[in-house]
Write a structure and sequence with these properties.
The chain is an alpha+beta fold and 394 residues long. 44% of the residues lie in helices and 15% in strands. The strands form four sheets. Strands 2-1-11 form a three-stranded antiparallel β-sheet. Strands 4-3-8 form a three-stranded antiparallel β-sheet. α4 packs across α6. The longest helix has 31 residues. It starts with a helix and ends in a 16-residue tail after the last helix.
Length: 394
């Protein structure tokens, strides 16, 4: 009897009728940014201003070639470039039969910007050395943590079916650091999820407005009382004469007692339109992409100066840190497989820094701080055979 009494106390209450329950529990609607932790939905956000920003980053990264070298010291001349016949150079130049290097770097950065993670599968050859690099879609991969070794491996599944288990040395995991999770990365898209949804709602609202055409372009006023037949006649007459792009410039002659005035926007409507620009600027700011890089040039008179400044900001503040992060991960997880002193780096991509470096090379050569061959090695060029180029020349 006590058991039955205890079970009755613990039993859930009866469900309220549907009509009554709707008063207390309205229909569920996903909150803004609900897709923040869903990598498949994150990839679907690759549109509108997100596409403009991420595409600019991906194209800029894809045009830079990695510098593969043996690191024998801290100075630049102690970084010996590897020949193009080296297996690591060949691997990066030809990742697999179906993917070019440009596509590999572009897709890598796109996945990083949208999901914060990118997974490379290192396929081994006959001699158990890396032979091909394949990208695995981020939604397919599940990380298996380990309490002792930090990482047990990776599970790869497609359509909900587990395909294969990979060991840590078979996968190269590139990710943006995440302070909330040591295993999964955090993307700029996730950090800006609410603004992304706001931008999508604004675009859909604008599309619906244009589709419905609910507001007139001109307003006619009169002190007279018009019949329904007269109103329809005026509407049909104006529409037949002034609709279409060929008739927009035709003069309007009104009947006696009619006055025409344009339909102006209210302050609330103007603020609604400005909010679209604000969300655009927030999206570009989170991805750290200046407007001119995406094609926005508001002051055409200063186009060249705006473009040069935007390129410098973009390369120094956005692209270079990402290249350094990618290079360090690939040095640890890929280059070190060929030797403890093998490394991968990306040259400085800033146009401002390149100009400054050329000036420094010229000054060092004039003052005898560096030899001609040292400068050539720092630029990745072969030294001159003549011994005089190994001595300072003032």
């Amino acid at each position: 009897m006590l058991a039955r009494f205890w079970k009755a106390l613990r039993s859930p209450p009866a469900e309220a009728p549907a009509r009554l329950g709707s008063l207390f529990a309205p229909a569920y609607s996903p909150s803004a940014g609900w897709w923040r932790n869903d990598s498949a939905e994150q990839l679907r956000q690759y549109q509108s201003w997100v596409y403009a920003a991420v595409n600019a980053i991906g194209q800029e990264v894809a045009r830079h070639r990695p510098f593969v070298y043996r690191n024998t010291g801290q100075a630049e001349h102690e970084q010996t470039p590897l020949p193009h016949t080296h297996p690591l150079c060949r691997l990066l130049e030809n990742p697999n039969p179906w993917l070019t290097p440009w596509e590999l770097w572009y897709l890598t950065v796109v996945n990083l910007e949208l999901t914060g993670n990118c997974f490379w599968h290192v396929a081994r050859g006959l001699e158990n050395e890396p032979a091909e690099l394949w990208m695995i879609p981020t939604p397919w991969v599940t990380i298996r943590p380990d309490a002792a070794a930090f990482l047990r491996g990776y599970d790869v599944s497609a359509n909900g079916t587990t395909v294969e288990h990979f060991t840590p040395d078979e996968i190269i995991h590139l990710k943006y650091p995440n302070p909330l999770d040591p295993h999964y990365g955090l993307s700029p898209l996730q950090a800006n999820a609410v603004t992304i949804d706001a931008n999508q709602e604004l675009l859909q609202s604008r599309y619906r407005t244009f589709q419905s055409g609910q507001r007139p372009g001109v307003m006619l006023q009169t002190d007279q009382t018009l019949t329904e037949q007269t109103v329809r006649r005026l509407e049909e007459k104006i529409e037949s004469r002034f609709s279409g792009k060929q008739n927009w410039h035709r003069p309007m002659v009104l009947e006696q007692g009619l006055k025409a005035s344009p339909w102006t926007l209210t302050p609330v409507e103007m603020d609604y339109l400005n909010s679209a620009k604000l969300t655009r600027d927030e999206i570009l700011a989170v991805f750290r992409v200046p407007g001119p890089v995406t094609g926005l040039v508001e002051n055409l008179g200063l186009g060249a100066d705006i473009w040069a400044g935007a390129r410098t900001m973009f390369c120094e503040g956005t692209i270079q840190p990402k290249l350094e992060l990618i290079a360090q991960i690939l040095t640890r997880d890929l280059a070190r497989r060929y030797g403890p002193d093998h490394a991968i780096a990306f040259p400085d991509c800033s146009p401002h820094n390149k100009a400054e470096r050329r000036k420094d090379d010229e000054t060092d050569a004039k003052l005898g701080l560096r030899t001609i061959n040292e400068i050539r090695r720092s630029r990745g060029l072969l030294p001159y055979a003549d011994a005089k180029y190994d001595a300072p020349s003032v």
